[in-house]
Amino acid sequence: MVRNILRSRRTEILLDNFIDEDFQNMLLPLNIMQTVYFNRKFRIINNFITSNQTVQKTTSVIGGIICTVMFIVRFYFRYKVDMSFIFNFFNLFFNVIGFSINCVCAIVHCNSNVELILILYKIYTLQTNKIKLRNFKIWNWIYCVYLLISYIFVASLFFFLNVNIYICLLNCLCSFIAFCHDFNMVYAIRLLELLSLELEIWTKELTIETVKTANESNENEHCSRMFEIYINIQEAIMIHNRIYQTQVRIIMFASMFTLIYTNNIKLKRHL
Fold this sequence. Notes:
By secondary structure, the chain is mostly helical. Helix content is about 80%, strand content about 0%.
C-alpha cells in the first residue's frame, strides 16, 4: 500500500515546487559550495525550485573533465619526481571515479534532488512543531567554513613541504578540487540530519498523549496528517539512499585504502 502511494505521488510532487525564503536561506551555504564545484543539485528562481537543465548538466560534465585533467597532470609531475606510483595511481583513480559519479548524479538524479528537497520542505510545513531553521542554517555555514579553513591549512603545508613552486601550486589546486567530495558528503549528511530532526518531531507528535488531547472533530485530520508525514519521511529516506549511497561507499573505500597504505609505509620505515 505504501509503495503504491509513493509511486502515485512521484509524478505529482514536481507540480508544487514552491519553497519559502527561510527554507532557501537554510540551504544557501550548501548550495554555494555545490555551485563553486560545478555540481549544482537544482535551481531556485523566484521561490520555485526546478531541476537542472541542459546548461547546468553540461557545466557539470565540463567541470568533471577539467578536474580529471588536472589530476592527470598532477599524477604525471608526481611520477617524474619519483613519488610512490601505487599511492598516486589510486589517488588519481578514486578521484576520477568520484568526479564521474558527481557528473552522472547531476544528470541521472536531477529530478530526484528536487524531489528530495520538496519532500523535506513539505514535511516541515505539515509539522506543528517546526525545526529552527536559523540554527540549522548557522551550522551549515559553520561546516562549510570549517572545510575551507581545512583547505587553507592543507595548502599552507604544500608551500612548506614542496620545493618546486609549480608542483606546489598544482597540489594546492588539486587539493581544492578534491574537497568537492567532502562538500558533497557534508551536503548529504546535513540533509539526512534535517530529515532525522523531522522524524524526531514526528515521533513526539505521535505520542498517545497527543492523540488523546486531540478533539474528536479533528482526530481524523490529525491521524491523516501524521500518516502523510510518515509517507513523506519514508520516501525521503529512499530517495536519499538512491542518490548518495554509491558516493558514500566510494569515499569510505578510498579513505580506508589511504589509511591502510600510509600506515603500511610507516611500518616499513620503522622496520
